[in-house]
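Job type: complex structure
Entries:
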Amino acid sequence: MATLKIANLVKRYGSAVVIDDLTLEVNDGEFLTLLGPSGCGKTTTLRAIAGLVEIDSGEIYFGSRPMKDVPPHKRSTAMVFQSYALFPHMNVRDNIAFGLQMRKVPKKQQHEQVHQVMALVGLEGLAERRPRELSGGQQQRVALARAVVTQPDILLFDEPLSNLDAKLRERLRIEIRELQRRLKITSIYVTHDQAEALVMSDRIAVMNHGRIEQYGDPFSIYRHPLNSFTAEFIGQANILKAKVLEVRAQESVLDTPIGQLISNTRINHGANEVMLAWRPEDMVLFEQNLRNQISGRVTRSIFMGNLTDLHVQVNDVTLRVQVPGISPWQPGSDIVLGLPEDRIQVLQ
Amino acid sequence: MELSQGRVPDISAEPTLRLRKVLANTWRDYIAPLLLLGFFIILVGLPLLMAVLWSLVNPDDPWSYPNPFPPSLSLAQWEFVFKYTDIVPAIITSFTIAPFATLFAFILALPTAYAIGRYEFRGKELIRVLILLPIVLPGMVVALFLSRAFDFFSLSQTFLGLVLGHTLLGLPFMLRLLSTSFAAIPKEISDAASNLGASELTKFRHIYIPLIMPGIFAGAIFTFIVSLEEFALTFVIGTPSFQTIPTVLFRFLGYSFVRTNASVVALLLMAPTTLLLFIADRYLKTNVLAAGYGNL
Amino acid sequence: MTKKNHSLAIFLLLLPGVGYIALFLSAALGMTILQSFGFFSFSSKTEIGLQEWARVLNSETWDSFLYSTKIAFVSAFGGLVLAYPIALYLRRSFIGKNVLNMIMRVPLFVPALVAAFLILNILSFHGIFNEFFLAAGILKEPLRLTHDDWGIGVIAIQIWKNLPFLTLILSAALVNIPADFEHAASNLGANGLAVFRHIIFPLSIPGALTGVILVFIGVFGDYAINVIAGPLYPPSLAIRMYLFGKGFGEWGQAACLAIIIILGSIFFAWLYSKLANLVVGGA
């Protein structure tokens, strides 16, 4: 297997810069997700790794080998496409065997490997079927099998689950991840679905406008967003501008539109104004011990099954709050929320 | 769990990779298009050039090997063909049959195309195939045996017979183009008109016809061209009483092959059709050829 | 409007266009079929039966059949082979593409007879083709390319005339192949040739089929171009048919030949469809 290194990658389409000086390193056997909204350059990056897209400058290394001049069919990558791209004129077995056929693997061995991998992904008995006779989930597995059977150095996934319904997506996410863990193939996964990214990845690269906004493991990305884009893109966030009033040894006091707040981050870069962020589920009810107490009025209460989404008006700001289960607080009622000091993120 | 081997060979030791890439790109971006362009210019341009040159050969200074070009040019051949052959009556005949055939085809096609374009009915697919038959069936077969039927009804060697025949061969195109145009009118427009109180006839006059004007134009041009170029049927039921430009050309290519005469007539046949198609292509934003050849 | 009135209205609307075609075609085809069985011979005696067929099914008819099949096959498939690289290349954009498109389409506008003349002119014994290669020293004596026994002249004319058509049809078929298929194949290790062989070719054949069949039928039943540039013997089926009909007045046999042409066309259309299915199924 291999490590992947991308250095200062630039890709332009006409005058638009799609990938803007991107640098990334992926460790051997790691599952990295490129996460971002449409148009952020994640798919282009993926295709550049596969060699399907020519890059303008920068370099891509598989291990120590520079890849810029290597054509796609000579790279040891295998991609699972969003549309699956299963060859309609071949049955399942021939589809999966295609990569082996290209590598001139002897027929008998092809059969064995195809058989093995079909068992691995759960496609037994479907060898003779044509792609159009399969369900969405089955097609997905064929695409997966076809990519995996060639034992590539790097597995690439281009939003493979976006055409499936929610339940199937949830199940397949886990299956893909399990498979990848077993085979230990370095994998790059592209998606705009942040739940998917959080569930599946060893590390996430959050992308926007061709650049990486933040790079880290799911926990850090969620709990400690470094900028407002990441804070807002992953999950929900309350983001406020704040003025630094006082910096103490272990904490800072901030003046915000919703009142004074204390954060356990020592802001020491001399900034006067900062951006703060915290998650809706970070705010709690009935915790009088917390120093940050926020009073407001409930304007909306949306019951979502396992939690309730509350919109709370505090001065001019509407805060989003999530509480588990049913909330007795109806629109129009006054509410007091507590905000733990360690939940306030100071953004750059 | 282990999968058996079958890896991509290590290509890190390939120093020529960059060179091959540059060569491939140069071929793809520069050499291939030039070669392709040159190939087609010769393939298409040379025959046309030869025809033009041969039509301009000076009879007093014959063109023969090893001259790459005729030694001198003159319009004598054109004069000759116009003065001493029956090309002029042939031109008149061609350009008389064509408008009649186009008109007939239009009148016959309009209601049928309307039905095909805007309604669903049983056997529609079959009818679509039937409509194409006159042009899919081999020309001489249709011509020869239609002529037998015409003989029976004393339609051979008559102007009416020729017009009827040309109409038959132009109908498929007219029908195709008109029905496509009718079908392209969004149902909402028709529904809106009905909703506002228009009867079917009113809709037809005030909405459909204006909207399908491009289709009518295209159909007319195509049918006109088909008639001008038509050979087999005209040859069988028209000659020797009637000559059209194609039949005259055929004669010049058969037993009395005089290269210079044939060149003139060939260019004469090509000119109007090329002009018409050019006009059609310009005037209509849609691709006339696609409409004519499409939906196969 | 009631259902019945509606159907009636549609019928009446369809009548002019469809009725006209149906009328004349059935007259022509009816004549053909009847005459092949001896009716309407307008000559000496009228025998009804299969004797016309017995007379027509001889070795000369077979020679004509083989010849027509051969030139049609070579024209249609030779044209396809030429059209493939052109259509494939036309998928990208390059300098001069618009000019190329325009030039390439010219033969579509050229009437069949004119095309026959143009190419005849070039390939004739003293035409520019022979003169050029003689002068260049590549040929020692001119090649007989027209009115030759093999039908090279006819084939050249037909390919020249039909190349743009085949290229257009093929382009349309190629456009329908999603780019992802090629990317997937390439990603799995297929080089350019392998992508063509395993993906592009099988998936474009069904779309190209109609065009190929149309060209085949056109050449198979051709009369005029074979008269102009074809061999003296064997004549094309259509020439033979014309000869027997208008020439010898043997309308019965002519009708049989016409039916042979029509049935042959249907047979080959069916055959090529089946072959195409094989190709697509395998690969």
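Summary: The radius of gyration of chain B is 27 Å. Chain B touches chain C through 81 residues (CB under 8 Å).
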